[in-house]
Amino acid sequence: MPRIPVWAALVGLFATACDDTFFPVPPEPPPVDGDGYCAVQAFFAADCFTCHAADVALGDLDLETDAAGALVGQVSARWGETLVVAGDPEGSLLYRKLTATQGAAGAEMPPASGGVSAERAALVYDWIAAGATTECSAPIVVERHHPDGYDQPVVHGPDAKFQTERCVDCHGLDLLGGTAVACVTCHGGGWTAQCNWCHGTDSTGVPPRDIDGQTDPTLISFPPHRTHITAGIGPGFDCTECHLKPIDALSDGHVFLGDPTPGEAEVRFWWGRSPVAIYDGQSCSDVYCHGNGRENGSIAKSDGPRDCDSCHQGPGGFSQLLSPPHNAHASETCAECHGDTVDAAGAIVTPAKHVDGVVQVALPVEITRTGDTCDGTCHLQPHTGAVWNP
Ligand code: HEC
Ligand code: HEC
Ligand code: HEC
Ligand code: HEC
Ligand code: HEC
Ligand code: HEC
Ligand code: HEC
């Protein structure tokens, strides 16, 4: 079994701690035994069929149906050079692409690989030098690293997301090839910054689809996700309220590099309005956002939608948990003094100003406020010298 040797696995371990500066030496590709055309075919099957098979023939090259027929004496329509000149490896575009000496004739093969290993190149060199015939003693089977069908997203997607093995060890720290294929070959450039490759259905990346593929809105790990990022009674919150938000899947600590807990989404409130809050998997404690503006509150995933009372209500009614002078103003609407945020009917008019971390006060024009002291007359009540927080 061509698997990562022990030393490479150890290198991989150290590399997690210092990915930016330390480049792990990639493991050897699987060996190809034997010689002649069968060995060359086995090599194509292992390294090239992803892109050059009967069903996908990138560069119009099918190496599966009849490799010799497709190569020997055939002139590339794209580059105008002969792919295999029997007896002349260096004059064959195939060999030059495999050794990254193709000059202006497109990419080396596999693309972004820097060329194949010396053993593989020698196999092709010897075959062409010996006349590029279709003779060989016995067919040789080369082991691929991945099982057949690995090009299917339902197969390799979950492996990538749960990091069943470290993709970067072979596909490169930038996933641009390393000793295997570049992910961009199929995904297209910039894919790692497109959050919806792995999350959600839009560019916010917020799941309705969990990383394990769960899409049932009642069963995903955090059903009220969308409520939190959409303006309602509060602003639409950014992911940074509750997570370390990456700018790219390759960001340090995200999926591919430096994540000590692959497959697990971390909830961290440190960068948000609730820097001391704790999430235990079911409940959030000590969250500012679910408090009444004076004391932090707590909330469980199972609690369902919130109304005004669930954050602001006290034992005796809506205003009881607010600062005491509110009680003296209980007959007035909140809009009287918080008109920026609520209207006279008690509806939030400016979600961006509610649960934003700032208490917006807009007192009636009759009242001026200096520090905690009010001046003026409101509702025929002289307020001069009245202190809000006695
Ligand atoms: C990830 C996809 C991919 C893989 C893997 C790949 N190729 Fe290619 N190949 C291409 C693309 C795309 C082109 C066309 C662009 C170019 O020539 O640079 C191409 C072109 C070629 C050409 C030139 C064909 C022509 O008529 O111009 C040869 C020869 C070739 N590949 C050989 C190989 C061999 C041999 C392997 C395996 C060692 C391989 N390729 C692996 C994508 C791939
Ligand atoms: C030990 C090296 C190694 C590791 C680790 C590795 N790959 Fe690969 N990968 C390869 C090689 C080599 C190929 C070329 C085909 C083959 O040998 O299977 C390849 C090809 C692929 C392909 C193209 C489809 C195919 O079947 O050829 C995909 C997709 C892929 N890898 C995804 C991944 C993902 C996702 C991870 C991480 C979970 C990963 N690989 C980890 C070596 C590796
Ligand atoms: C042979 C082509 C091919 C290669 C090479 C390839 N992928 Fe993919 N991958 C696909 C296709 C096709 C999709 C589905 C795209 C779509 O849904 O539009 C996909 C989807 C994915 C998804 C999302 C799956 C999901 O449903 O959530 C992940 C994650 C992924 N690939 C990881 C990788 C990584 C990492 C690499 C490189 C190591 C890689 N792929 C290389 C073809 C490829
Ligand atoms: C109000 C806090 C909050 C906000 C804002 C938030 N999340 Fe989450 N997120 C959570 C919680 C709680 C979980 C569930 C963690 C668990 O129990 O596994 C979670 C889980 C996730 C998961 C993992 C889902 C899975 O597969 O289990 C992803 C991905 C995620 N969030 C992305 C985002 C993105 C992207 C944004 C911004 C667009 C965002 N979140 C905004 C609280 C939040
Ligand atoms: C290649 C797949 C992939 C892509 C692309 C991707 N993520 Fe993730 N993301 C994951 C996985 C897997 C997890 C959960 C497990 C983990 O952290 O390893 C995750 C978790 C998260 C979380 C929860 C916190 C955490 O780090 O665990 C947030 C927030 C998040 N992703 C946002 C984004 C954003 C924003 C983007 C786009 C810039 C993005 N992701 C792109 C795979 C991806
Ligand atoms: C008479 C004016 C007035 C009315 C009416 C009023 N508030 Fe206030 N509110 C204030 C002032 C003044 C503050 C203190 C701001 C400060 O400390 O800078 C405040 C503070 C708050 C706070 C922050 C926590 C606290 O208690 O300091 C909340 C929450 C709040 N009000 C909600 C309400 C709600 C809900 C209503 C309607 C039931 C309401 N207010 C009615 C004047 C008023
Ligand atoms: C999830 C908890 C939560 C819910 C639900 C909630 N509030 Fe608040 N509210 C707060 C917090 C926290 C503050 C503290 C100030 C801030 O950050 O805007 C606040 C502040 C206020 C203020 C003071 C003005 C301001 O914007 O600072 C008013 C008035 C208010 N809320 C009214 C309401 C009304 C009316 C409802 C129901 C429609 C409601 N709140 C529902 C958490 C909540």
Query: Which small-molecule species are bound to the chains here?
Result: heme C
Structural class: alpha+beta
How do the SSEs run, as a string of H and E?
Answer: HHHHHHHHHEEEHHHEEEE
Number of continuous helical runs: 12
Based on CA atoms alone, the radius of gyration comes out at: 32 Å
Gross morphology is rod-shaped
Q: Spans with pLDDT under 50 lasting ≥5 residues?
A: 1-27
- Quantity of strands, as a count: 7
Reported for the largest beta sheet, the result is:
4 strands, antiparallel
How much of the sequence is in beta strands? Answer: 5-15%
**Mean pLDDT over the full residue set:** 84
Helix content: 10-25%
Terminal residue distance: 78 Å
How would you describe this structure to a colleague?
With 390 residues, this protein is an alpha+beta fold. Among the domains are: 30-129; 282-323, no CATH class; 329-387, no CATH class. 22% of the residues lie in helices and 6% in strands. Strands 4, 5, 6 and 7 form a four-stranded antiparallel sheet that branches. Strands 1-2-3 form a three-stranded antiparallel sheet, with no helix packed on it. A hairpin with a 3-residue loop joins strand 1 (278-279) and strand 2 (283-287). The model is unreliable at 1-27 (pLDDT under 50). Residues 4, 27, 29, 46, 50, 144-146, 150-151, 156, 159-160, 164-167, 169-171, 180-181 line the site of one heme C.
